[in-house]
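Our example copied in:
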Amino acid sequence: MVTISDPRERPIAVFDSGVGGLTVLHELLVHLPAEDYIYLGDTARFPYGERTPEELANFSLEIAEELLARNAKLLVVACNSATSAALPVLAARMRQTTLGVEVLGVVRPEAIQAVATTNNGRIGLLATNATVASGAYEEAIHDADPYVTLVSVAAQELAPLIQSGSTFDEKVVELVRGYIEPLREARVDTVILGCTHYPLLSPILQRMLGRDVRIVTSGAALSRQVEHVLGARDLANPDQSEGSYRFLSTGDPEAFAAIGTRFLQLPLGPVEQVSLHERVIA
């Protein structure tokens, strides 16, 4: 790998279990266009939602090592399941690096934004089984405001369905309707999309929830935190021209490219296939 001497010129690394994190990368590309980015999708092991916390921590460390080897200056975990299970382990590992690379996850920024958004103190969460079971959103929301109520719904079938590229037909509509019924019954006024795949369903969700219910997504909340960290650590790229972005996949790169454009909403370009070195946490 080529070493970049100026840490400000190193890329921001983003990873997810699949292509859902491209919705986060999209926001970063729009919000911080001068930065360079490298994105890794662990599509060979998708989905993460049914994995154990130990598996998710191992996967996340393997990915982090790969991205550190590619000169990452900041690590963004654009996966709610991985953030919920592995963020403390990742943060500890990043502090051991020469540059002390910062690691940011999607849960806390989204939770803080949801608390700031709600008027009636009732927030809904749609997420995978692993994310709901972790209690990460409950903890983050309670830390921000202990008087807010969170209603969590595990919507396990949605991420694989979205990643498959299936048409959003009436079966999908009815599936989504079933998931949001508890949120409607709880009269939430704010809904967190606790999986980076879910923003593709925003039009369906908004129609069913009603126009007065606000939807909070990971990308918008996280991009602001990334900007703050870059400024605080003097890591913003001094070159204000348009930055580059490139892609890695542990699975089929052609399949990644075929579905990825739908999530990124920008040209994808070539995808490099990578093999990760397995490791086990003691």
